[in-house]
Write a structure and sequence with these properties.
By secondary structure, the protein is mainly β. It contains no helices and nine strands. The chain has a five-stranded mixed sheet with strand order 1-3-8-5-6, with no helix packed on it. Strands 2-9-4-7 form a four-stranded antiparallel sheet, with no helix packed on it. It is globular and about 35 Å long. It starts with a strand and ends with a strand.
């Protein structure tokens, strides 16, 4: 699992079946996860919170960003953490969006 701490955005590639944890230190209104898959199409699954449950592929209580799409979650807080995973090596972006 890779751990990243950034202010407002992180762009990376997942290792298949291994969750990344992204901590966003900028205050969040919305957190958007962008699935930037290029090779093998695969959805990304994620959880959001101050101390989120580690995301699992097709897990209950996870949000999903389908292949080459995004999904936004409203979040009121700071130091937002996003746990993100996919069954394939997928490029992704996690972005804080203010006042959406």
């Amino acid at each position: 699992m890779a751990n990243y701490t950034v202010n407002t955005a992180k762009h990376a590639t997942l290792v298949a079946n291994t969750a990344d944890l992204v901590t966003l230190t900028g205050s969040a209104g919305w957190v958007t996860v962008v699935n930037r898959s290029g090779g093998t199409p695969a959805p990304v699954y994620f959880t959001v919170g101050d101390d989120p449950t580690t995301a699992t592929v097709e897990g209950n209580n996870t949000f999903v960003a389908p292949d080459k799409q995004s999904f936004s979650v409203k979040f009121d807080g700071t130091a937002t953490k996003v746990s993100i995973i996919s069954a394939e090596a997928v490029a992704y972006s996690v972005v804080v969006e203010e006042g959406r």
